[in-house]
Design goal:
The protein is of the alpha+beta class and 108 residues long. It has a six-stranded antiparallel sheet, covered by helices on one side. A hairpin with a 5-residue loop joins β3 and β4. The radius of gyration is 13 Å and the shape is globular. The two termini are 23 Å apart.
Length: 108
């Protein structure tokens, strides 16, 4: 089960939804998801995940940066990621707290 922590970002209703230590989304005032964040300990792992998302057409765009939304070192910020993938990665990240790629188990 995923426990979502909601953090209000603005008075008009923009919200950061933290699904796990490594997965979060931002929604607009109407509840529409605008962007997703996936956290990593290293820039290399974040870049590998970014490339996996792009290569497998799992997002419309993705970038890697020092973490701003998650309590990790780096995050992959991605747009148009499917809800099912976000939930699967959030669930997997709550069951393991290692530096493995989030997507490793999806490649089987």
């Amino acid at each position: 089960m995923i426990n979502i922590t909601k953090v209000q970002l603005s008075a008009d209703g923009w919200t950061l939804n933290i699904l796990s230590e490594r997965v979060a989304t931002i929604t607009d005032p109407l509840g529409n998801r605008k962007v997703s964040y996936f956290g990593f300990y290293t820039q290399e792992k974040a870049q590998q995940f970014q490339q996996w998302l792009i290569d497998n057409k799992q997002c419309s765009a993705a970038t890697v940066r020092k973490a701003e939304r998650l309590s990790m070192n780096f995050e992959c910020k991605a747009w148009s990621v499917a809800t099912e993938l976000i939930l699967e990665l959030a669930q997997r990240s709550t069951t393991t707290n290692t530096n493995n790629n989030l997507h490793t188990s999806l490649a089987h």
